[in-house]
Amino acid sequence: MLKKSTLLFCFLFALLNLIADYSGAQRINDQQKGLKDYYKNFFPIGVAVTPQQLKDSAQRQLILKHFNSVTAENAMKMGPIHPKETQFNWAPADEIVNFAVANGLKVRGHNLCWHTQTPKWIFNDSLGNQVSKEVLLQRLKAHIEAVVGRYKGKIYAWDVVNEAVSDNPNELLRNSNWYKICGEDYIAKAFEYAHKADPKAVLFYNDYNTESPEKRARIYRLLKGLIDKGVPIHAVGLQGHWSIQDPSEEKLKKSIEEYASLGLKVQVTELDLSVYSDSNTPDATDKTKLNNFSPELQQQQATQYGKLFKVFRQYKGTLTGVTFWNLSDRYSWLDNFPVRGRKNYPLLFDAELKPKQAYWNVIKF
Ligand code: GLA
Fold first, then answer.
1. What domains sit in the chain, N to C, each tagged with a CATH number?
2. What's the pTM value of the predicted model, to 2 decimals?
3. Other CB atoms closer than 10 Å to residue 216's CB: what's the count?
4. Which of 100, 130, 218, 343 matches a 20 to 30 Å C-alpha distance to 156?
5. pLDDT recorded at residue 19
6. What is the pLDDT of residues 186-224, one digit of tens each?
7. C-beta neighbour count of 361 within 10 angstroms
8. Does the Cβ of 38 fall within 6 Å of ligand 1?
């Protein structure tokens, strides 16, 4: 007969093995898990991409591990995709959409009407004179029908109008060529054309500084006006070009709640957290004020990312997506804005594509 102590030993040994197996399995599991898996009960996690990145196997793998939504960084903007009135450059946008469809990722379309990255031909006739409102709206309609129509059923959401609200607190709308030629009507028209081209697409107004109380009030006014007129607008995009200090939880919550009170869904569409806080000061032009990405800054950024995602999770249901603007610190548009050539470190993955402290804070909940 086995002694009691031997039995106890065997039992403990088996238990320890079981625990080791289980945590081993967990470890493998955790290694395979990406952002999108941690957030599967909250909202899709997206990233802005270029066709070139999709051809680079390490970046492609990183995208597939962590993200379940993509946005074309530039490929769908009016200038790149519609360079001449009768010519479309579909290939780069097609590559992104085909990649997403083949791998089961969602696609956000970005964007249909913006004051910048427009093609040269759009505002002028063949003699170089400015076109009439009728002609411009007709061109906008043809553009939207072609682009939205091509990706109908594959692109679930469109940023229809981007950044129409002025930077000048004393006026509502930016004095862009769209506005100069069409007045405010171009905004409602863009939404109507997009809705007609794909009635199922979720249509967004997208902008920056959406949390600054002053601009927030003007964006709210614009959105309310559109809704009151019955314009098919469904959601608002907070671009989320923020910094390691801003916005506060309070400002972010207030803005989500205010836009949502109009019956709109909300997404964070272009998230990055600059490690510089001087984008609006004269210092921003001084390249000698380069930050090396010190441990303090890394910690500050991680804390801010953690704080923001905590708020995002609280608004599950209202907040229907969070998209990062670029994949890793290897390349960010902020390396050249507002100061050309000033390296920034705004994302969750470093230049070697490794998760940063900020990443661990985003998945810790
Ligand atoms: C804006 C646009 C984006 C992108 C960024 C900077 O936020 O909406 O498409 O151009 O600026 O890269």
1. 43-362 (3.20.20.80)
2. 0.91
3. 20
4. 218
5. 52
6. 999 999 999 999 999 999 999 999 999 999 999 999 999
7. 21
8. no
